[in-house]
């Protein structure tokens, strides 16, 4: 899965949790939570969906690295590449 | 014969529109079963029944709005025959209690069920179609036999009258306004707050979640709910209702969880028996409740049962919240943002995760000293997360 595909999947998951999100308005390099109303329950739902759709488990200790959409996509790409190797 | 009344759906909801019967006449019902779905300004509510029996007569047609307390159906008790029930009804026609006196104030209030037979006949299909088209069936002229309203009449009605779109947000705003105005008018609030060190709880939770798959992770919010529930054991005067001029302690700890609705507005349905749930159980209940509240699908007991409310505005970044009590409850607990700040412990200055917990209390039911003890108890509970 390349970065664009991962990004598409991640945005679809975010929209399933926060349907009001307009893709065009989302800045991938800015903190997600500044742009979207995501509380800790929403965030957990995003992670559960990533676990179900991409089979990637993100430990709590890594939450701090995942501030922007770019961070999240990069993190997932790395995890998926590790698994493929 | 059992009279099944539209139950209370919370202080800010005094009426409901019947959307669907889940049980047909002649079918048995069990205690706790959902028998109807009723629309309120905040959500479509699954209405549960609290007695066993057999559905006998359904007195309210689909699409009708009735005040809380209206008898909407009758049921047969075990061993009772339809004939017995019918004769009992003939013997005591006056026994049917009319809706509460406040009801006539609501312009949409339906008449008590008895005059149903005199109503203009409306075919069920026409009623459904009117609901779909959002048309007031009472305003549609009937052209069928005996002036019956048919599907065609409804559709012709649409051509004449633009349907008034029901704006759920506006309705919800009105309901919140009514409940909160009543609260500030009637409840003499007092407010207390306490800063709680959360290092132990945060570290314990991090270790716990490390062991758990993402689908079973526990949020700090669940820990806080459980700590509130346990601390309430020593502060029973905060858990219950102010009714008929006096405090009535609740028998269980059913915490109303304030949940913001994405399109705007707020709802605070209950998680039952929080004090008796394990943390994983509580987390599942919380997750389920939040998703159903946001999807607009709740149960009547969740709407009517909260004995106290907990609100967590910390996620929005505020330090502390001083909430408005949801009547007839007598207390509201607020949690602010979990944040690492300077803290002294035994004369040593350290950086520690802290949270500000607050209590809005009803001074008719409790005094500040009791509230202060409750917050101290809550703080203590959160220092022993492994016991939650």
Could you explain the architecture of this structure?
The complex is a heterodimer of chains A (85) and B (388). Chain A has one domain (3-84): Non-ribosomal Peptide Synthetase Peptidyl Carrier Protein, Chain A, CATH 1.10.1200.10. Chain A is mainly α and 85 residues long. Chain A has four helices and no strands. Chain A is 59% helix and 0% strand. With 388 residues, chain B is α+β, with helices and mostly antiparallel strands. In chain B, 28% of the residues lie in helices and 26% in strands. In chain B, α6 (220-231) crosses α7. Mean pLDDT of chain B is 85; it is low at 93-119 and 161-165. Classes of the chains: A mainly alpha (85), B alpha+beta (388).
Question: Which terms summarize this structure?
Answer:
heterodimer; A: 85 residues; mainly alpha; 59% helix; globular; B: 388 residues; alpha+beta; OB fold (Dihydrolipoamide Acetyltransferase, E2P); Dihydrolipoamide Transferase; Chloramphenicol Acetyltransferase; 7-stranded mixed beta sheet; 5-stranded mixed beta sheet; elongated
């Amino acid at each position: 899965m390349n970065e664009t595909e991962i990004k598409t999947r991640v945005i679809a998951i975010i929209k399933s949790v926060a349907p009001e999100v307009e893709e065009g308005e989302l800045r991938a390099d800015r903190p997600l939570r500044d742009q979207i109303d995501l509380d800790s329950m929403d965030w957990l739902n995003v992670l559960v969906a990533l676990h179900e759709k991409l089979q990637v488990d993100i430990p709590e200790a890594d939450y701090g690295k995942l501030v922007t959409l770019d961070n999240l996509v990069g993190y997932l790409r790395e995890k998926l590449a590790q698994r493929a190797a | 014969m059992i009279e099944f009344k539209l139950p209370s759906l919370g202080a800010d909801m005094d009426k409901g529109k019947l959307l669907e019967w889940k049980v047909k006449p002649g079918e048995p019902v069990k205690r706790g079963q959902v028998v109807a779905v009723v629309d309120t300004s905040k959500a479509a509510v699954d209405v549960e029944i609290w007695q066993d029996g057999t559905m006998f007569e359904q007195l309210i047609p689909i699409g009708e709005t009735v005040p809380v307390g209206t008898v909407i159906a009758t049921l047969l008790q075990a061993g009772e025959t339809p004939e017995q029930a019918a004769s009992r009804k003939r013997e005591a026609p006056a026994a049917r209690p009319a809706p509460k006196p406040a009801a006539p104030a609501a312009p949409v209030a339906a008449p008590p069920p008895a005059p149903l037979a005199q109503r203009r006949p409306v075919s069920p299909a026409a009623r459904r179609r009117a609901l779909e088209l959002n048309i007031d069936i009472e305003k549609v002229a009937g052209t069928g036999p005996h002036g019956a309203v048919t599907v065609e009449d409804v559709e012709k009605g649409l051509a004449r009258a633009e349907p008034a779109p029901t704006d759920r947000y506006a309705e919800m705003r009105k309901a919140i306004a009514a409940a909160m105005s009543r609260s500030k008018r009637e409840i003499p609030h007092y407010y207390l707050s306490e800063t709680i060190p959360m290092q132990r709880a945060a570290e314990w939770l991090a270790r716990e979640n490390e062991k758990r798959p993402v689908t079973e992770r526990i949020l700090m919010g669940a820990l806080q709910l459980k700590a509130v529930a346990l601390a309430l054991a020593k502060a029973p005067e905060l858990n219950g209702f102010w009714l008929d001029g006096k405090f009535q302690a609740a028998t269980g700890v059913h915490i109303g969880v304030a949940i913001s609705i994405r399109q705007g507005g707020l709802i605070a349905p209950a998680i039952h028996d929080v004090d008796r749930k394990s943390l994983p159980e509580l987390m599942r209940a919380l997750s389920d409740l939040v998703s159903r509240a946001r999807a607009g699908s709740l149960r009547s007991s969740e709407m009517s049962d909260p004995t106290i409310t907990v609100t967590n505005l910390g996620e929005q970044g505020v330090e502390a919240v001083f909430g408005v009590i949801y009547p007839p409850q007598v207390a509201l607990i607020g949690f602010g943002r979990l944040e690492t700040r300077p803290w002294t412990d035994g004369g040593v200055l350290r950086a520690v995760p802290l949270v500000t917990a607050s209590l809005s209390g009803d001074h008719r039911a409790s005094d500040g000293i009791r509230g202060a003890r409750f917050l101290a108890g809550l703080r203590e509970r959160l220092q022993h997360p492994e016991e939650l």
